[in-house]
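**Discrete fold encoding**
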Amino acid sequence: MSSSFDMPVPADAEERRGKPPVVVYPNGTLPPADMDMLQAARQTMTKTAETIVAPREGGSFRVPKGHFFRIVSVEGSQVGDLNLWNAADLSERFFSGKTRALHATHVGVGDRLWSTLPYLRSMATITHDTLGWYGWDADGAGVHDVIGTRCDPYTNRLLKGDDYHHCCHSNLSRALAKEMDISVQEAEFHVHDVLNVFMCTGFTRDTHQYFMKASPVRPGDFIEFFAEIDLLGALSACPGGDCGSEHSSDTVPCYPLLVEIWRPEPESLVGRIFPERNAYPRTHGL
């Protein structure tokens, strides 16, 4: 890419570009998730509740600590935008940026969803994913990203010049407002960057722009999580459907999503240590 503001290339440009990459947070330094215990607990589960999230709408759900929850495709290829909060304290919520830094741009089995500072603890662990086979495709895309921020009416107005009221940001705000019996305006400030469930995304190789393509999800596919704390969740069935053409749309096919809550036998989790708030002493003045 060139422009009238191009700078001259220094003589040591290739040397500077040739420095080796260093992974910021090597995965081996994270405390490991006890996947053996979680996989054993999965074998004892009983479904206790479910919520249907209508197309182009949002819905809320609660998951007690030590339970599992699933997001399930039930009728057609559909992506969802997920928010999570500490059920007792909305100030502790999912931190997509730190989750991305600690794991990768896209998450899968064994990865965890981390909460905001100063809490910084695992909120949920991914325990099963029927799309785990997808990996990385020829375009460099993967499934379940923590890159995108969620479609919202403000960006829609900025780029298209019109108003659209079923963006995922709006759906999540309304779902939280209804759940907490607060105004949508108050709820909006608690809505945050999402886990894009089932969404297939990447960055273009030439311009490095965020792109989406049709999700590989099909009816019966699901992603499953283990709740490490008491959770309040909100899910938007994205108005982009499978996000293979556009989002914030009333014309593309959209389908409902199902959230299921599953309770394992308590004996299967005996001895499990659940995460506490981050131990960094804030009294040190940050």
Q: What stands out?
A: Helices lie at 13-17, 35-42, 96-102, 153-160, 168-180, 184-188.
